[in-house]
Amino acid sequence: xxxxxxxxxxxxxxxxxxxxxxxxxxxxxxxxxxxxxxxxxxxxxxxxxxxxxxxxxxxxxxxxxxxxxxxxxxxxxxxxxxxxxxxxxxxxxxxxxxxxxxxxxxxxxxxxxxxxxxxxxxxxxxxxxxxxxxxxxxxxxxxxxxxxxxxxxxxx
Length: 156
Fold this sequence. Notes:
Blueprint lengths: L6 H21 L6 H12 L7 H8 L16 E5 L2 E13 L3 E2 L2 E2 L4 E13 L15 E9 L2 E5 L3
Antiparallel strand pairs: 1-2, 2-5, 3-4, 5-6, 6-7
């Protein structure tokens, strides 16, 4: 079997190699890809105090696939402190606590979020009610943390 290397075939091979390099670079931290994570500080800068949960969710793209313009994150926790709700959304994860077993590296037992979106809301509803759809739920504070350091914060 003989394959002729035409200009078109060589261009396709170069394009495939470039696409592979792009995918490797963007997805080596997992999903969402790096270009989506890099867009989160700009999204947080668009948030304003007093927004409803639905408005904040639309800007950040929470619980929406990055393929559809979201950030591909779902809430991991809600902490109630009186009239305040602190919602935490992990962005990607990195393995932590990798230990060796019989001289070979074991799979990580625990993964911690690489970055987290923190949203603080004030609301009139109780912990057992649907605070996300309540019109009394208003955004107070929002920031992005990466490995314990604040990366971006909503303007006050």
